[in-house]
């Protein structure tokens, strides 16, 4: 019967009547063995102690949840799924030639894969060698903030016009 209140999977503070019954039971068992019963605390003290412990637990749980959220926000994202697989060989079709194509233009799908795998929505993605702006365009498409820097002013202005 005692395990109803104190088992690992089910714990409940007994009411006053149940607690007094447990006190009598434990006292009789202790007396039969020539021991002193240790279940002699006043019930109201137990209730107060239990309420304090519940309040402490609530505060600790809140602190833990806040710290966990901070940890998750600081942790480097690495989001791979069946749609964004983690492999050591990537196969993306190269960007087809077109008038005004940048000589080192990266495929949009490649940049989206990299950004999706390693950032969260709202993160800042910076490309300090912007070129065609593929990184900036992919970042904006995926809901990231983008910073692009390009030495060639004409190329920079072209990309700026393309992203509007």
UniProtKB/TrEMBL annotation:
Stored InterPro entries: DNA_methylase_N4/N6, RM_Methyltransferase, SAM-dependent_MTases_sf
MF terms in GO: DNA binding; N-methyltransferase activity
An example Gene Ontology biological process: methylation
SUPFAM superfamilies xrefs: S-adenosyl-L-methionine-dependent methyltransferases
Enzyme class, UniProt record, top EC level: transferase
EC number per UniProt: 2.1.1.-
Keywords: Methyltransferase, Transferase
Domain DNA methylase N-4/N-6: 25-158
Protein family membership: Belongs to the N(4)/N(6)-methyltransferase family.
Protein known as: Methyltransferase
Organism: Erwinia amylovora (strain CFBP1430)
Taxonomic placement: Bacteria, Pseudomonadati, Pseudomonadota, Gammaproteobacteria, Enterobacterales
């Amino acid at each position: 019967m005692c395990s109803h209140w104190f088992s690992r999977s089910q714990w409940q503070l007994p009411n006053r009547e149940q607690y007094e019954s447990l006190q009598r039971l434990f006292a009789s068992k202790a007396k039969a063995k020539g021991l002193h019963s240790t279940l002699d605390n006043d019930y109201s003290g137990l209730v107060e102690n239990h309420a304090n412990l519940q309040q402490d637990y609530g505060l600790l749980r809140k602190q833990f949840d806040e710290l966990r959220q901070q940890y998750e926000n600081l942790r480097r994202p690495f989001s791979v799924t069946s749609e964004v697989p983690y492999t050591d060989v990537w196969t993306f079709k190269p960007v087809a030639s077109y008038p005004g194509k940048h000589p080192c233009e990266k495929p949009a799908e490649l940049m989206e894969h990299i950004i999706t795998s390693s950032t969260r929505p709202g993160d800042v993605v910076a490309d300090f060698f912007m070129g065609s702006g593929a990184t900036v365009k992919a970042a904006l498409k995926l809901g990231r903030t983008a910073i692009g820097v390009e030495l060639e002013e004409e190329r920079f202005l072209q990309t700026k016009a393309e992203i509007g």
